[in-house]
Amino acid sequence: MITPPDRTPLPRDFFDRPVLEVAPDLLGRLVVRTTPDGPIALRLTEVEAYDGPNDPGSHAYRGRTPRNDVMFGPPGHVYVYFTYGMWHCMNLVCGPEGTASGVLLRAGEIVEGAELTRERRLSARNDKELAKGPARLATALDVDRSLDGTDACTTGETPIRVLTGMPVPPEQVRSGPRTGVAGDGGVHPWRFWVADDPTVSPYRAHVPRRRSR
Fold first, then answer.
1. Which of 5, 18, 48, 107 could form a disulfide with 165 if both were Cys (CB 3.0 to 4.6 A apart)?
2. CB–CB of 142/78 below 8 Å?
């Protein structure tokens, strides 16, 4: 008999912990996005931890700005940023208010609402690629800056909720350097993923961007 995933919402105190505890514990959890066309559910298979002022790779390393303001707020909120002038990425804020740590949601398996995500991810060759990478994940879930600051732990109506799902056993969790992070922050093994899962994105080291002459 196959045990179905637990659809109990994760409480706020789940996120009110050090980011390096929260990040691997998010693997196997369900992110549910409520849209006008219906719900989409994603099982998390890959994440990255960012530790605020202690982490040169974090958006909050140099302090608070209008862009990263949500990271300094209460845990359990959604931080969405826009990158390269074309892509959104989704994070979950961790730790006590004021610590500015968060977990980037890098990849997952669409387990409900795949027909809705296929309409947004026309370039995906198969369903395993629908949310394989942070920008693809945000696109598949229809996440943009309008959702920045969303409370994923509220008991009221919310467009994004994180459910208990089926936590991944520690022996199935792998870790390594974060993708595309440069400098001192590039050495941290703070990317966590489910071993041998086909929805996990490929690792890519940081490549400096060339300035046009």
1. 5
2. no
Structural contact between residues 24 and 17, judged by C-beta atoms closer than 8 angstroms: no
C-alpha closest to that of 137 among 182, 204, 200, 179:
200
Q: What is the mean pLDDT of residues 133-137?
A: 96
Query: Structure tokens of 152?
Result: 């994923």
- Count other Cβ atoms within 10 Å, centred on residue 83: 11
User: What's residue 32's pLDDT?
Assistant: 97
Q: How far is residue 201 from each of residues 15, 108, 128, 132, measured CA to CA in Å?
A: 24, 9, 10, 5
Structure tokens belonging to residue 62: 């140099």
Distance (Å, whole) CA 83 – CA 157: 28
Q: What percent of the chain has pLDDT over 70?
A: 95
Per the DSSP assignment, residues forming a β-bridge with 82 are 88
Tokens describing residue 126: 């198969």
| DSSP labels, 54-85 | G-TTSTTTT---TTTGGGGS-TTBEEEEEETT
Provide the 8-state DSSP code for 99: S
Nearest by Cα to 47 from 9, 102, 110:
102
pLDDT 10s digits, 148-207: 999 999 988 899 999 999 999 999 999 999 998 878 788 899 999 999 999 999 887 766
Model confidence pTM above 0.90: yes
